[in-house]
Amino acid sequence: MEDQALAIRSLFIGSIDSLKIAMKKAMVEKNLSGSPLLFFVLDHIQNTPNCTAQDVSQKMHRDKGQITRIIKELITKGLITKQLNQNDKRSHFIFLTEQGQAYYQTLKNADNEAIALMKASISQEELDTFLRVGQRMLQNIQSHINEP
Predict the structure, then answer these.
(1) What does the radius of gyration of the chain's CA atoms come to, in whole angstroms?
(2) Looking at residue 35, what is its pLDDT?
(3) What is the CATH number of domain 17-137?
């Protein structure tokens, strides 16, 4: 049982670490500053209509202060811009700038390459099984975490 727990931990942590390393390597090769976390923030902004800092914070399970600092950094780099939410003057919608779109696409390509390497020599059936089981494992732990 302990060997299985170690194997599960090693698989998930190793996969995440390898993806981060691949992303960081791609960023260095393309002379892009930042961290893989910036990619995940940009990805969420890109794929969430009318995205707010609160949306990013909830999706990424990070405190709002950390997300606010990242958003300020992305604004300073010219990668995103904010627009006042006309329905709630306390919040802003966040959008990728043209420069942010290019930066995001470069990182997205690197991410896709890393995922392709992970999937090499794995059949579609094996991948489907892995995703189905992994999703159930994630739901199991999330339902435990979200219990009152």
Answers:
(1) 18
(2) 80
(3) 1.10.10.10
